[in-house]
Fold this protein.
Amino acid sequence: MNQTNPRPEAPLPEVHRPEPDAVKRALDVLGDRWTFLVLREVFFGVHRYGFFVRNLGIGRNVLAARLSALVDNGVLERVRYRTDPDWYEYRLTQAGRDLYPVILTLKAWADRHLLSSADPKLHLRHSSCGAELAPIVICESCREPISATEVDLLATTA
């Protein structure tokens, strides 16, 4: 029994997390600030090394490591756009494009919980209908929005 809360706490559910854990693996690939900022720039249309350096103020060694990791993990591909000397740009793979909802949701969370009403915000509009984007997670079957309290955790075996 908690002194500040007179109701007894419910026991924590015991959940078997299968290995390999998908969230852990995703964080192994994406789990640092610079990686997400590089991805943000790619989604904003930046593809060339020098523009990443300029826009992010990132050290060249850090940028080279993040771009290399994103290429190695299949999130970006390195595409030559000039020869003699060879120059490359970085393009999203399908795995990279599949991260767009993650970036949108992270941005919406930060807008809601980290920025004040006085802070400038970047507004994103759906080009088809003109409405401002508000990312939501929905059930693939019934198309209803979901929250963490409406999800059962079930581990499967291969």
Q: What stands out?
A: The chain has a mean pLDDT of 90. Residues 80 and 88 are 4 Å apart (CA to CA).
